[in-house]
Amino acid sequence: MSNRLINWFKFASPHAFYPLAGKMIPIFWTLAALFGAAGLWLSFFVAPTDATQGEGYRIIFVHVPTSWMSMFIYLVMAGWAAMGLSLNARLSSMMAQALAPTGALMAFLSLWTGAFWGKPMWGTWWVWDARLTSELILFFLYLGFMSLQASIDDPRRADKAGAIVALVGVVNVPIIYFSVKWWNTLHQGASVSINKSPSMAMTMLWGMLLMALCLWMYSIAVALTRVRAIILEREAHTDWVKQLKEIKA
Amino acid sequence: MIWNSVGDFFAMGGYALYVWGSFGICAFAFLAEPLLIKKRHSEIVQTLRRQALAEKLEMDNK
Question: How far apart are CA A187 and CA A136, in angstroms?
Fold first, then answer.
């Protein structure tokens, strides 16, 4: 019992986590490549042409996964930020900081691919619809979190201020998710839901799920790489960093 | 097979701009982001290395 607890907390220190992250990164890149190759194959060569949207619907294979990831990364980021705030754990706050740019990128890609889908299908790049607007707010929440942290010199204070913004912003995620149910919007309903069978061909569904898995693995790989850079930047004064073989003179 | 020719594939049934515009920006983003982070990591490693080297030289001169 006590042994397992010790092992868990061991990796909560940047010192122990830095080499562990370095070992995990290639695994996640490999998984991302495998899921990505399979997902792209299904998206372009297996999934049939849509009856109403022709080939234009294929945007779904990047639009839905990036949208899911933009919301999911926000929740994970807020979770790490909350842990950093409540337990005063530096590594948790660094994880939140490492996730924010990737989350912002996913939100941006979700909006961009959405615009490129809306134009041919709805005849407009953008409408101030509940789904689109709340996703835009999510993008701004990421930018707000990042710029707030960047504007405060003391990293521990920046962590605390950022965590509060991240936690307040969590309320937006269910708003995005349920916006197509709560309001009458131009955006179509959920593509996949738990309580009813999906309204699309199985190959389309699998293509989307594989692409989502690919982006999931990608996000983990990228966040771990970024957190390693953040660890070095913030722990530069410590002995263990000076003893690293890539740094030691 | 869905596509009769390579040209057919790239034409995407008339939706080429929209489909490739979406996939293209994603491909660009997912290549650029890891490169930027690698750069960030190697920059901090470089800085710390120079500092370590400077400290070592200072010690040696004493």
Answer: 14
